[in-house]
Specification:
The structure is a homodimer. By secondary structure, the first copy, chain A, is mainly alpha-helical. The first copy, chain A, folds into 2 domains: about 15-55, Homeodomain-like (Arc Repressor Mutant, subunit A); about 65-200, Tetracycline Repressor, domain 2. Chain A has helices at about 15-30, 35-45, 50-55, 65-70, 75-80, 85-100, 110, 120-145, 155-175, 180-200. In chain A, helix 8 packs across helix 9 (about 155-175) and helix 9 (about 155-175) packs antiparallel against helix 10 (about 180-200). Chain A is elongated. The interface of A and B includes residues 130, 150, 151, 160 and 167 of A. The structure holds a DNA duplex. Chains A, B: One of its GO terms (molecular function) is transcription cis-regulatory region binding. Chains A, B: Keywords: DNA-binding, Membrane, Transcription, Transcription regulation, Transmembrane, Transmembrane helix. Chains A, B: Pfam families: TetR_C_14 (PF17754), TetR_N (PF00440). Chains A, B: This is Transcriptional regulator, TetR family.
Chain lengths: ~200, ~200
DNA sequence: TGAGTTTCTGGACGCGGTCTAATAACGACT
DNA sequence: AGTCGTTATTAGACCGCGTCCAGAAACTCA
């Protein structure tokens, strides 16, 4: 935690934040699709390869504000009491994840969807994140259910619940400045799904 | 429907089927990721550009058997009686779409997921299809609901229901040769979601 | 000063995808 | 037969993302 420790080796000339800001400027000026990695790197004052040292791909920039929120799901699920009903635990964990998201941080992914040309990249990177968290949620449900239920259910729960949450995030992003907190939308979308699965589990 | 009428102009030297078969061979030999568009075109005896005359992208090949099934959703929704409860109509339409899928046609998309290197392309193309049908379903639900319900619900229904259906398709594909019909899995996955939303609509 | 470590950089490559201009193969019409 | 319009195919070039590698730069420590 002591940022004065200069570890060892050559110090970093750049940082994730620097590149994010350079990218944000360019996205506003000319949209995501028309911005190349070279331009981002140039504006940040580094070489193109350095960009890929900080981000695995250009599309990662679309999710800079969302990734850390999404990643909380595993921890929130683990924090749920063992004796709680499965779908109750799932619902509350997801709503808590949504509540932990900073109010004003709307990722590029949810705003630049309809901007023509962004769709391809966006959808590529979006489903990857979706699938990753689906794996986490499916494992949780599968463990809680044991081998009693129909084999399709854990995966169906994961896809449906996170699908509803994703829909809520989309609506939230498009609601504009006067919007309610993200967790409100997510709760409204996720509750019916959880209630439905609770009946058959 | 008369396939002898070549309309007008230069006749096609190739066809979608030819390219699909060439691709299928190569996918089996060396996986999807290690197969280039050049190789597919070469094996089919055409140039690389001709490939893009028949397919918009390499990843379209992953869904050759699924696309026509997925596209049926709009028609099946339109075929539902107007006086039927919304979620009942949605559920039945989706199950009918699944039932219309040929038993043995398992798309590459659902089998080559875990093959390392395929994921990126697969997820890119998968979410595009998912979003397209979500748009169709959301419009249907939105029209049936009018402006009475909470604004997040139509989108949440679309994402959750189709998410469950996608999960079912994945389980179906991985179930191997002894699997039950796709519609069975889809029904089991979609029913709870529809029941849950039916309570709040 | 030198050794070790980490970051940055330039250059090259492969691949997917787009574009353009040219050509080939057909039917139809004169 | 020859020409015209139409459509499919083709070669060629181009762009951008992502990967790889070898080497240089900047620092710490001994």
């Amino acid at each position: 935690m002591n940022d004065t420790t200069h570890h060892i080796g050559r110090p970093r000339r750049s940082s994730k934040r620097t590149l994010e800001e350079a990218a944000a400027e360019l996205f506003l000026e000319q949209t995501y699709a028309r911005t190349t990695v070279d331009q981002i790197a140039a504006r940040a004052g580094v070489s193109r390869n350095t960009f890929f040292n900080y981000f695995g791909s250009k599309s990662d920039l679309l999710w800079v504000d969302f990734d850390e929120t999404i990643e909380r799901l595993g921890a929130e699920l683990a924090a749920e009491a063992e004796d709680r009903a499965v779908m109750d635990a799932v619902r509350e964990a997801i709503v808590r994840v949504a509540a932990s998201h900073a109010e004003d941080r709307v990722p590029w992914a949810l705003t630049q969807v309809d901007l023509m040309g962004t769709r391809d990249d966006l959808e590529a990177s979006g489903l990857r994140r979706f699938m990753k968290q689906c794996g986490v949620l499916q494992a949780f449900v599968s463990r809680r259910l044991g081998s009693s239920a129909k084999p399709v259910l854990p995966r169906a729960v994961a896809f449906a619940v996170l699908g509803a949450a994703a829909a809520a995030a989309g609506v939230w992003a498009n609601a504009g400045v006067g919007r309610r907190p993200l967790a409100d939308y997510v709760a409204e979308a996720v509750e019916p799904v959880c209630a439905g699965f609770a009946q058959v589990l």
